[in-house]
Amino acid sequence: MDQSWDFRLREELIRELGAILKIYMGLENIKVPRNAHQGHQAALHVFADASKQAFGVASYMVTIEGKCQLLTAMARVTPKRMLELDESQSIPKLVLNALLFGCRLAQYLIELRPETYVSTTVWFDASTALQWVHSRQSTSPYVLNRVEEINRIRLKCLLLLKHVPTSCNPADLASRGVAAKVVLKSNLWLHGPAWLIDVSACPNQSIFPTEWEIKACPIRLLPP
To answer: 0.70 exceeded by the pTM?
Structure first.
């Protein structure tokens, strides 16, 4: 747009800007406690998701006292080149990138406080990407390179990879984008799924952990 700094925006741009600003109204009312660590051991849960708009991740700490708190979350705009792929290929690859994004975040948090987390689980809602990670049978160099890094982090940090229903995945909010007023009222976003601290409500696990995962890093949902 080749215009001077004080030119008047076109009406359609003014309306578009107004709609964007409306989405962020109330953002200042969202409060997330900063003092997350009280010296107790905890379980770390990282959720990952992807859409045509963005990759999203959100991490939560569950203490032995039964408190669940949002630690950190972020989103990254989906690369344009990935949107040009056939949808049957692009969606699984988007989710694979989101999974890698989540594993990197988990590694960062573990290395930041290695004495804190007794177990770490990365959750996402696409079975195709999980099958790629477990089988390592894809013929695509793009997929294999990312699977190699995911497995390297998984072995180093003893991560469990688990499937979660989309309705229980807080990273879905980050990947598709929601208004600030939705985030403000969302317990899913601020505190994670209720079953993180209630084992009896945990969704059935249809996706397998490997024998190595069961022995090396059993999932431990800490009691309330």
So the answer is: yes
